[in-house]
Amino acid sequence: MSTSPLWARATLALRLLAVDPGGLAGIWLRARPSPVRDRLLAALPALPLPVRRLHPSVGDEALYGGVDLAATLAAGALRRSAGVLGRPAALVLPMAERATPGLAARLALALDSGAGHCLIALDEGAGADEALAPALADRLAFHLDLGPVGLREAPAFAPDAGALAAARAALRAVSVPPGAMADLARVAARLGIGSLRTPLLALRAARALAALDGRARVATADLRQAVELVYAPRATELPEPDPAPPDPAPPDQDRPETGDDGRTGAGDLRLPEELLLEAVAAALPADALARLAAARAARGARGSGAGAVQKGNRRGRPLPSRMGRIDGQARIDLVGTLRAAAPWQGVRRRERPGRDGLQVRPDDIRLKRFEDRSDRLLVFVVDASGSAALARLGEAKGAVELLLAEAYARRDHVALIAFRGTGAELLLPPTRSLVQTKRRLAGLPGGGGTPLAAGLRAALDLSLQARGRGMSPAVILLTDGRANIALDGRADRAAAAAEALGLARGLRARGIPGLVIDTGARPERALATLAGALDAPYLPLPRADARRLSAAVAAALGD
User: Fold this and answer.
1) Does the pLDDT of residue 271 top 60, yes or no?
2) Helix (H, G, I), strand (E, B), or coil: what is residue 339?
3) DSSP-assigned letters across all residues of 193-242
4) Options 1.10.3720.10, 1.10.8.80, 2.40.30.10, 1.25.40.10; CATH of 173-241+269-299
5) What is residue 179's three-state secondary structure?
6) How does 7-21 read in b/e, with b if 16+ C-beta sit within 10 Å?
7) Burial of residue 130 (number of CB atoms within 10 Å: 0-12, 13-18, 19+)
8) What are the residues whose beta carbons fall under 8 Å from the beta carbon of 556, sequence distance 6 or more?
9) How many other C-beta atoms can be found within 10 angstroms of the C-beta atom of residue 333?
10) Confidence of residue 119 (pLDDT cuts 50, 70, 90)
């Protein structure tokens, strides 16, 4: 039974975290629930901290503590409960990709406070847009992905508690050679890593490696292994190695002797940057940088696989209650109201003696809040004109079917608009039914002129209708860009192009995200201009099949 390199890296990262939990801050673990993930989490007791589990919607009271309502009412005096962050702990956050920006900021502040917390962020996201908040990812030393690891490649892992305790005791005395930090910073810059925290985390990992190995000084091997663990998942570019400079020293000149650990006689560490770059390159999969670029593009897109966030007071995921006034519509958070009133009961009884029972005032009222996500509608606007219409419609059919096959988890709806001749037609109203989609997509006609403006107007009308029903629309345009039919049906290229640009600006002004896919044999400059007016990504895909088209839509709109 062979051990996966990813699994070996994960177990080493956990051992290093057990040596320096407060300094290394934690692990971003990207993996769906599985026996492999459970096997790694089973080793968390090796950390020298109590393990506390959080929820992605945990409130401030659970984090920082608050009024213990039952104890306060029973004692007649204020009693407070301790929060999770009151004492150093190993915080385990399932579904970390769903953590709100507020929670991410609070956890980041806790990690920066020096209190000794560390975080195990369990990222269960299925798409590139579902990822840990950058504020937390920047602070966690290790980024691990156990998705490709099978159970047979992940042998049982039981850290040696005695060795970890000895390493923790020796960590404070581990020294770092001069110049190591500067070398790590230069290597980080060459790899496109902009955060200044990353070299610091790598240096802490190197010190923990030396302590685990029973050495009092960081060696070259420690730094090399540290950059593999810390830099490789963060690298955004991999520069070509610099040519080796000529050696100015003659062959017979005496040189300082170098020990096995990479130290010279003067006590400096000989650390060529290329050595560390090679370490990062060896740890990177072949397509890692391309996937990182796609993920960044997806996270930067305005679309969201789960639809737009809507806050209200009727339904959805509960949010912390807020002070408010009773208006007959909002729902009162009874527990929150009592908790707000409890600390003031002694003062109020002295102000108004003789009144028994709990005294609640308008300022104590707390109203419930919820967060809901609307369904998203993908509106495909397909050019069905000309001799290539059948091929383009075939690609659109396949892409729609592929996206619908994955819509069960994302709650997406799709619609299809085809434009040809002198106008546009809604061929498929918003639906999630795969059977209905296949039936309606069969035998679509093609040919004629290119009324691009008519297709965009139909998409705008449909998007506004969908938004009125509480959906979040996004428009995907597939065309070769040669608009030649105006909205009134005239064959006028200039008017057709101007009207298409005006409708694209209308979509942008209404905040409707989009994607422009150029299906022509050569990229069309007019389509790039149209994408700019729409404020949408422009993708030239002259020979896209259904699967490539589906992948492009997913990457650009954040699926």
Assistant:
1) no
2) helix
3) ---SHHHHHHHHHHHHHHHHTT-SB--HHHHHHHHHHHTGGG-S--PPPP
4) 1.10.8.80
5) coil
6) bebbbbbbbbbbbbb
7) buried
8) 297, 298, 301, 303, 515, 537, 539
9) 21
10) very high
The reply to whether 5-159 and 375-557 are identical in fold is yes
| Integer CA distances (angstroms), 71 to 8, 74, 80, 340, 342, in order | 48, 5, 8, 14, 10
Where do the structural domains in the chain lie, given as residue ranges? Answer: 5-159, 173-241+269-299, 310-372, 375-557
CB atoms within 10 A of CB 463: 24
Tokens of 57: 């919607």
| CA–CA dist 19, 319 (Å, integer) | 36
Answer whether residue 295 shows pLDDT above 50: no
- What's the rounded mean pLDDT across residues 487-507? 89
- Average pLDDT for residues 31-47, to the nearest whole number? 91
Fold of 375-557: Rossmann fold (3.40.50)
Specify the pLDDT at position 261: 44
Bridge partners for 383 per DSSP: 419
CATH class of 5-159: alpha beta
- Rounded Cα–Cα distance for residues 550 and 234 (Å): 27
CB contact at 8 A, 533 and 512: no
User: In the 8-state DSSP scheme, what is residue 287?
Assistant: T
Q: Quick check: 340 and 362 in contact, CB under 8 A?
A: no
Contact 59/320 with Cβ under 8 angstroms? yes
The string over 270-296, giving b where at least 16 C-beta atoms fall within 10 Å of a residue's C-beta and e elsewhere, is ebeeebbbebbbebbeeebbeebebbe
pLDDT in tens, 517-557: 887 767 788 888 998 998 888 888 766 566 666 666 666 66
297 pLDDT above the threshold of 50? no
- 28 forms beta bridges with 121, 143
And the tokens for 226? Answer: 């540290």
In order, the DSSP letters of 31-65 are --S-HHHHHHHTTGGGSSS-EEE--TT--HHHHHE
Residue 90's DSSP bridge partners are 51, 118
Q: Which of 361, 358, 351 is nearest to 323 (CA)?
A: 361
Q: In the block, which residue shows the tokens 């989009």? A: 514
Element housing 292 (H / E):
helix 288-300
Mean pLDDT of 75-79: 74
- pLDDT over 50 (residue 438): yes
Query: What average pLDDT does this structure show over 297-321?
Result: 51
The two structure tokens encoding residue 141: 């030393």
Strand positions, DSSP E, 94-221: 118-123, 142-145
DSSP for residue 374? P
Report the range of poorest mean pLDDT among 192-201, 270-279, 357-366, 430-439.
Answer: 270-279
The token pair at 315 is 């339904």
pLDDT of residue 387: 46
